[in-house]
Amino acid sequence: MQLDELLASVHADIEPFIGEGKVANYIPALAKIDPKKFGMAVVTVDGDVHMIGDATEAFSIQSISKVFTLTLALGRIGEGLWKRVGREPSGTPFNSIVQLENEHGIPRNPFINAGAIVVADTLLSGHQPKETLGEILSFIRYLTDDDSITIDAEVARSEQLTGFRNAALANYMLAFSNIHNPVEKTLGVYFHQCALSMNCVQLAKAGLFLANNGRLSRSGHGAVSAERARRINALMLTCGHYDASGDFAFRVGLPGKSGVGGGILAIAPGKAAIAVWSPGLNANGNSATGTRALESLAKRTGWSIFGAGRN
Ligand code: GLN
Questions:
Q1: CA 254 to ligand 1 center in whole angstroms
Q2: Each residue's pLDDT tens digit, 22-62
Q3: Do 207 and 171 fall into the same domain?
Q4: Catalytic residue numbers?
Q5: Domain ends where: 194, 214, 232?
Q6: pTM > 0.85: yes or no
């Protein structure tokens, strides 16, 4: 079956569920998004783009940005990053603080908020927040070959005004000397990276290097080494959906990273990068219909890394 046809079948599978879940409302700017939106894009390692629904409408990528900042931080400080952040699943919600006390201010992994705040802090060292954000934006634009991608200042401001838990996490880690820059500056970088505004096509293009052994498909240039791409995929599989990472592996079977804007980036190694957007979230803060769509796609393509599993 051709991918366009297959995407139409996925769309039909999830149609009855569109609108399920709850749009994130703890960030006021996200609360007003229409819960009935649904888009999906698949970009193959050959660079072919397939899409369905609202795949060209921009949304707030939120925690999906953590994949790109992790990639940059590993490029900058390499393995030294693992002294400041772990790489084990947390089994706790994305904004949880409970493990930090027992684990002396070292977050479990780079995809929970605490871990991503440390990653942002490493990118900020030696720079002003504007420069760091410029570096993040340039990287995304380079990956996608698309200079139109921007950060939504209203979303960033909205989160800055209400991000008390994140401020608590950052201050708590500072108490263990695991934040090296002024907390407001580190949080400023974190809130703005989360406010990156992208559509499904752009997001799938940005993630393609992870499906392609670290290489950009259009030029064959390496964005990262094959080994690094493999390791980032491993972290996405084990930690990308917080305390629902196991369930996502069980249902979809692909490395994936979710965001509270309702987006999910999933990687089918050697095959394609897939981005899906549907704003209604399940109890773990992951897109409810987006997960269903990926489940259907993985089943229909046989792309799960655990085996085709088709009847
Ligand atoms: N910016 C959001 C927060 O820090 C990101 C959370 C998410 O997407 N899971 O709360």
A1: 21
A2: 999 999 999 999 999 999 999 999 999 999 999 999 999 99
A3: no
A4: 63, 66, 190, 242, 260
A5: 194
A6: yes
Which whole-number Å values give the CA distances from 69 to 62, 74, 214, 264, 300, in the listed order?
Answer: 12, 9, 15, 16, 32
Are 280 and 35 spatial neighbours (Cβ–Cβ below 8 Å)? yes
278 and 201 assigned to the same domain:
yes
Say which CATH number the domain at 214 has: 3.40.710.10
Assess if residue 306 is contained within a domain. Answer: no
Tell me how far the alpha carbon of residue 1 lies from the centroid of ligand 1, in angstroms.
37
Q: Which atom of ligand 1 is nearest to the CA of 159?
A: 1
Q: How far is the CA of 176 from the centre of ligand 1 (A)?
A: 22
d(CA 289, CA 294): 9
Question: How far does the chain reach from its first CA to its final CA, in angstroms?
Answer: 15
What pLDDT score was predicted for residue 219?
85
309 located within any domain: no
Q: Which of 22, 63, 187 to mutate to test the pocket of ligand 1 (most atoms within 8 A of CB)?
A: 63
- The domain containing residue 187 runs over which residues? 65-194
Whole-number Å distance, alpha carbon 190 to ligand 1 midpoint, is 9
Which atom of ligand 1 sits closest to the CA of residue 116? Answer: 4
pLDDT digits (tens, 9 = 90+) for 277-310: 999 999 999 999 999 999 999 999 999 999 986 6
Q: Are residues 91 and 237 in the same domain?
A: no
User: How many CA atoms are closer than 13 Å to the CA of 202, on its beta-carbon side?
Assistant: 25
292 token code pair: 């269903």
Q: If you take atom 4 of ligand 1, which residue's CA is the nearest one?
A: 113
Protein residues whose CB sits closer than 6 Å to any atom of ligand 1: 62-63, 94-95, 113, 159, 166, 194, 259-260, 285
Residue position matching structure tokens 């908020």: 113
